[in-house]
Hints:
This protein is α/β, with parallel strands linked by helices and 465 residues long. It has helices at residues 7-16, 23-39, 41-52, 56-82, 119-130, 144-157, 169-176, 189-202, 224-236, 253-271, 287-296, 346-354, 369-378, 413-419, 445-454, 456-464, and strands at 85-87, 97-104, 107-111, 134-138, 162-164, 182-186, 206-209, 215-218, 248-251, 302-304, 308-309, 314-315, 318-320, 337-342, 361-365, 383-386, 407-408, 421-428. The chain has 3 domains: 7-210 and 411-422, Aldehyde Dehydrogenase, Chain A, domain 1; 215-401, Aldehyde Dehydrogenase, Chain A, domain 2 (3-Layer(aba) Sandwich), CATH 3.40.309; 431-464, no CATH class. The N and C termini lie far apart (73 Å).
Amino acid sequence: MQHVISPVGRARAAFEAGTTRPLAWRLDQLRRLRRMLAERHADFAEALARDLGKHHTEAQLAEIGFVDAEAAHLERHLEGWLRPRRVPVPLAVRPARAWTELTPLGVVLVIGPWNYPLQLLLAPLAGALAAGNTVVLKPSEHAPATSAVLARWIPEYLAGAAEVVEGGIPETTALLAERFDHIFFTGGEAAAKVVMRAAAEHLTPVTLELGGKSPAYVDASTDLATAAKRIAWGRFMNAGQTCVAPDYVLAREEILEPLQAELIKAVTALFGPDPAASPSYGRIVDDRHFARLAALADASTVVHGGQRDAASRYFAPTLLRPAPGDAVMAEEIFGPLLPLVPVDGLDEAIEEVNGRAKPLALYVFSNDPQTRRAFAGRTSSGALCFDVPAAHLSVPGLPFGGVGGSGMGAYHGEHSVRTFSHERPTLDKPLWPDTLELIYPPYTRTKHRIIGALVAPVGKRARKR
Length: 465
Ligand code: NAD
């Protein structure tokens, strides 16, 4: 009988063969990944259009080009990041040399969501390969066209480096029963808990990239027209199905009025008078999400938009003025609805932010240094951005990740390489001279004095007691 090796088994065997460790292998995988994106660009763009109605320009900006830029950045800097880092050795341990080195973990499982089905699978892949691991990719079943294109091309371009396992909950459950050396998950809270529980069985470390409600605060010191345009762009890109989209706006009532007018102008500028006819505007991923959003967009609170078409899953960019306690303010919206929420000023806005789970991103549109400092000093969030939403993802030197309810761990650029590596400390102490003679038992008064001097602060504290 022929012995069938599973994708995880193949990834494990490839890692254990030792070929993934040299810098040359890692750089080669990054180049292959980039070559795949270039040569199969049309396939990927078409799949993203089919799954999400994504315009090919947006697909280039936020998916294909994004991953290419991330891989190029890794390729350029990897050698430097992998250089061992010398660490000073204290007197008590000298003579010796100490350093740390980033070492691969082994087999990494990357589980992706459907909203940026290419970026959120391949950007972690690039980091994991750069760190010298092999990878199993689990694309989202809710972006089937992208999943199929990945399953078609990854084995060809990244043979021996990455495997693709397609499927939904049953397939993911089966995968999670296996042992990995790291699990990198992007998705919602409910599935994150399933992943973390499964990881606990093998004591596998996890990175969780989750979502939540990312607020935008706007005050009078900003340019409302530009702020509105940026907020509308961040909110309505990918039809609102973006983890870092501004989820709701907080402002004083006298700001909300003119801001609302500017947001309406911005929506028209971005998508024309009828966004349904704009090829730049996306569609809701499936009927379940469409129905969920329809239930959230209570007609009595809609101040702009609200039009929808179930057959094509078109949902217009919509502005709401929710009543306190409305469902739209209870959960992550993940669609093209933007609630405008009045607060009586900075302190109430900060209270509102701090009264909820820590957001993935916090956006502050203000020119007032005190307001900026107040948000920086009195809130916690995955990221803090002044005057622009979502663009922090494109700064490869910034770690991208959440905190508390919005996730744990971070990636991008060097942070990816560190996430997918173990920073192994190494100590090299020559056998001669054997300075440890000074501290070996049997203990004597002289040795006590020597040890006191060598580890002075501790010795002094001990004598005082
Ligand atoms: P999801 O949690 O439903 O699915 C994510 C992945 O987990 C999919 O591959 C799916 O097959 C798998 N999965 C789902 N349920 C599972 C289960 N019970 N057992 C095992 N596997 C399971 O998330 P989604 O709907 O694809 O994405 C939306 C969520 O992702 C939103 O909350 C959004 O904010 C978040 N998100 C976060 C980021 C980020 O970078 N932080 C990016 C995009 C999306």
